[in-house]
Amino acid sequence: MTIDPRAADRFRRLPRSEWRTELEALVVREFRTALLMTGDETVPLDENYFDLGLTSLRATEIKQRLEAGLGVTIDTSVLFGSPTVDRLLDHLLTQPLDGAPAPGPAAPGPAAPAAPAAPDLRKSLVDDLLSDLYQA
Which long-range contacts (CB under 8 A, 24 or more apart) does 15-24 make? Predict the structure, then answer.
């Protein structure tokens, strides 16, 4: 399934107050398809999508389709660190959607802590994935 390339344009025309509803429908549709769910099945927003049967390959495919369709970058740590649809939606709502300004504080806040170096992040993700694999 491919996201309509005009999705980001549709979001730019919507009032910001409607973004979450529209974005949720788009993201839920992607997850429902990846999880082979029927249209009448509900994708729980607050449950770990890997516990629902999503594979890391399917999660990566969803990430790529959302990035391409919305013109955003989704941090892999968001996808694998707190793997719920709700957390992904929260992340997407902080991103500029293909040219649309991202929501944010009016004044700059305190500096964010430095992100871990890429090798550390990869090692952490691999360790988490292996841990989940061995617990299953």
Answer: 16/103, 19/93, 19/97, 20/89, 20/93, 23/89, 23/92, 23/93, 24/85, 24/89
3-state secondary structure of 23: helix
pLDDT in tens, 46-63: 999 999 999 999 999 999
Q: Which of 73, 71, 79 is nearest to 48 (CA)?
A: 79
Q: How far apart are CA 5 and CA 67, in angstroms?
A: 10
Beta carbons of 8 and 70 less than 8 angstroms apart = yes
CA distances, 94 to each of 12, 88, 97, 130 (Å): 14, 10, 9, 30
Compute the Cα dihedral for 71, 39, 22, 28 and give only its sign.
negative
For the stretch 80-92, pLDDT in tens is: 888 999 999 998 8
CA 37 – CA 49 distance, rounded (Å) = 13
